[in-house]
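Q: What would this chain look like folded?
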Amino acid sequence: MGSLSCRPLSNRVSDQAPSPLEESESREKSISLRTALEQLPSRQRNVVYLRYFADESLEGIAAVLNCSVGTVKSRLFHTLERLAKMKEVRDILEEWR
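A: My prediction, written as C-alpha cells:
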C-alpha cells in the first residue's frame, strides 16, 4: 500500500476564495479525515495533529511529547501508513492525484 504524503497546511493554502461547491466538498473531506483520525490511538493522533494541523516542527513535537525526534519520525511514518490504508483517507488521496 502506498504511503500517505502530507505537507503542512500552510504549504497548501490558496489565495483564491473557494466556491460553495468546493467549500461543501472540503467540509465532507474534513469530516472524513476527522473520522479517520478519531480511530487512531491518542499517541498517533497527537503527532499528526501537531505536525499537520498545528504546523509544528519535528523538534517542537518532540519537546511537547517529551520524546526524541526519532520517535516522532517513527510515529509519523507508522501513523501515515495506517491512515493510507483507511478507506476514508484513500478516497481523498485518489481525488488529490
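The CA atoms of residues 27 and 42 lie 23 Å apart.
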